[in-house]
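Supplementary material to the annual report.
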Amino acid sequence: MSAISEFGSDRGVITQLRAYLAQAELPEDGRLPPERDLSDALGVSRTELRKALGTLEAEGQIWRHVGKGTFVGSRPVDSFADIAALAKRTNPAELMRARLIIEPEIARAAALTATPMHLAEMRTCHVRAREAATWRQYESWDNRLHRTVAEAAQNTPLLGLFDTLNALRRAVTWGRLRTTPVKPSPNHHSFAEHEAIISAIENRDMSGAAAAMRTHLQSVERNLLQRQMEAAD
Amino acid sequence: MSAISEFGSDRGVITQLRAYLAQAELPEDGRLPPERDLSDALGVSRTELRKALGTLEAEGQIWRHVGKGTFVGSRPVDSFADIAALAKRTNPAELMRARLIIEPEIARAAALTATPMHLAEMRTCHVRAREAATWRQYESWDNRLHRTVAEAAQNTPLLGLFDTLNALRRAVTWGRLRTTPVKPSPNHHSFAEHEAIISAIENRDMSGAAAAMRTHLQSVERNLLQRQMEAAD
DNA sequence: GTTCAAACCAATTCAACATTGGTTGGATCT
DNA sequence: AGATCCAACCAATGTTGAATTGGTTTGAAC
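Predicted assembly:
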């Protein structure tokens, strides 16, 4: 070996590799050939190539995964859109916090864009929820009310997020069935709060709608915690 | 044929099927045998069995899917998790509005809960984005910065929503490749805006973080619209 | 004209195998 | 000795093709 390669071999392979990356035409996904092929093509041993790839990975220029290959750029985030998988990693409290962050902003947007049709449906849901004979019916109308608010924002992605959150809620709450068979009392906290939300939206009061929704969810949260403590017997 | 089976054959198979469901030991997932086997076991033709299964499905007692099988209970929530379907119904402008509603609130939450580790990673992403040699690299670090902000909020459902939004963004933007091969200029608007976001989070300034994120996204939105108009030649 | 069996179709699953980054152990060469 | 190389192995992943399965069509039989 020459004196240069004795203490500069790694660096030499790295520069060779960089040159290759600059010159090579990579496929759409930025994947480069398998190590065995690449080492052959560059006329280097796999050991040397792997050392060079290792430093390039440490620099964040490439990322690798067993069975997949080596790719340029930074490792993609594992986007887990799977509700079931997500539900396992969370809990009601965390979910409630997420709702508290998202839904008031949805209500704010709804106050700006709600149509008379939306408002009419909100009113209907509100009335039906009051008249509900069973808790199950109440929850159904309550859900529909909240979803109408989300629809009123008239934004497809936002509605999709809301539905995702809702599905998550059902998945997390699953198994914890409501034990109280009685119907909601006429002065259940939600009724006045729903009223506040709807009228704020009617009045195009964006901040008011957001605040009313936040208040409502906070009281739902209190209720949830209380029920959890009661269930600890 | 007997007079009974003439107008009661379907109902007869249904009751037979119900009896089977009540008696049979189903596997964990509630899957029942394939139609061909089941029709054989019950001594009925597949046509008849399928009619009975059809009404049971209409009643919501079972659900079926080609290639999967027939299952008792209600069809599991696929929960809009289908990004592709959602992407078809929306457009970049609407998506941008959704981001403008959601991400500032995520930044606000992050300002409260970010750990030094998160802050360090944000700084790293910021620096790497500045140093990016290609636009592709820049976008990669930009994405990672935004996701780190979402991680800093330390809320699993919220992170899931962020990822959903991101996947949607990729799906919608797909096909519109960036044509400019030049790397981002050193005074690209994003750099100062990212700086504002990060330092607001560092200072635990919740409102500041939300405002900075909003400003940033608004300028991204302007940029997007401008690019769309340029592309109209 | 209704029913049935068989064939066909498309979505899905499943199993076997090939590929790929990561690791180890002995051979080889300074 | 010590580094390097090479071959083999390992576990995760991708790929491919056959088998399964609900849905549909066809043609004969009654």
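The CA atoms of residues 53 and 59 of chain B lie 10 Å apart.
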